[in-house]
Write a structure and sequence with these properties.
It comes from Streptococcus pluranimalium. The protein is an alpha+beta fold and 222 residues long. 49% of the residues lie in helices and 13% in strands.
Length: 222
C-alpha cells in the first residue's frame, strides 16, 4: 500500500471519529479488539517506563458501581461493546523498583550502565520535571503517559470502523475506591487516569463536529 492510500485512510478515520456516547447492541470482533489493545501495549512511554495497565472491564457489579457515580460514563457503560480502564502507576521515582525494572527489561544490565542511567533519571525528575518529591506530580506524570496509549487505541479503532469515547467525567476518588473495594487496583500503587468506551455508533451525532481553523492551531516558526 502506498503512502497516498495510507494518508487517505488516516484522513477518513480522523474525519469520522467523534466522541460516541450511545452504541449499538453489537460486539467488536475479538481480533479487532486485540489489535486495539496492542496499540496501547506497544505505545511509547517516558523513559520507557510503561507505568500503566489497561483493564477491560466486564464485571457487572463494578460497572454498576462506577455508573452510579460517573455522570460522563452512564450511557457508555450501558451500551458499549467494551469498556477499558486506563490505570497509572504511583510513586515511579528514579530510585523505584519499577524504573529499575524498566531498564533491565530493555537489556540494560551492566551495573555501571544502570547506575549512570538512574542518575540521569534523577536529574530529569529532580531538576527538569521537579516531580521527584511530590507524589501527586509523580502520578500526574505517569497518568499523562496513558493518554499516548489512549490516542493510539482511538486511532486504531477508527481505522477498523469502530467508534470510541474517552471519558474523564467521573469522581476520581470515588472510582478509585470502588476499584480498590473490588480488588481491581491497589490505591497505594496506582490510580485510574481515564476510561475508554468502544463499540459501534447507534446513530450519527446530531451536531456536526467543529474544529478551530487549521491555521490557528498549526504554525511554523522560522
Amino acid at each position: 500500500m502506498d503512502n497516498q492510500n495510507i494518508r487517505q485512510q488516516l484522513q477518513n478515520a480522523y474525519e469520522k471519529r467523534v466522541a460516541m456516547r450511545v452504541y449499538q447492541d453489537k460486539k467488536i470482533p475479538q481480533e479487532d479488539l486485540e489489535t486495539i489493545l496492542d496499540a496501547a501495549w506497544l505505545s511509547p512511554s517516558s523513559i520507557g517506563l510503561e507505568g500503566w495497565r489497561f483493564i477491560i472491564l466486564e464485571n457487572t457489579a463494578v460497572k454498576e458501581a462506577i455508573k452510579a457515580v460517573s455522570w460522563g460514563a452512564k450511557s457508555q457503560l450501558e451500551t458499549a461493546s467494551h469498556f477499558i480502564l486506563l490505570i497509572a502507576e504511583k510513586n515511579a521515582r528514579y530510585d523505584s523498583q519499577s524504573v529499575y525494572n524498566s531498564l533491565v527489561r530493555r537489556g540494560i544490565s551492566d551495573p555501571e550502565a544502570l547506575d549512570a542511567r538512574l542518575k540521569q533519571y534523577q536529574i530529569f525528575q529532580e531538576s527538569d520535571m521537579e516531580i521527584a518529591d511530590d507524589e501527586r506530580r509523580l502520578w500526574d506524570w505517569t497518568a499523562k503517559q496513558t493518554y499516548i496509549a489512549l490516542g493510539n487505541m482511538m486511532t486504531s479503532a477508527a481505522l477498523l470502523g469502530i467508534d470510541s469515547c474517552p471519558i474523564e467525567g467521573f469522581p476520581y476518588a470515588k472510582v478509585n475506591a470502588i476499584l480498590a473495594q473490588h480488588g481491581v487496583i491497589d490505591t497505594e500503587k496506582e490510580g485510574i487516569a481515564s476510561m475508554l468506551s468502544l463499540g459501534y455508533r447507534l446513530e450519527d451525532p446530531k451536531h456536526p463536529r467543529k474544529r478551530k481553523d487549521r491555521q490557528d492551531v498549526i504554525s511554523i516558526f522560522n
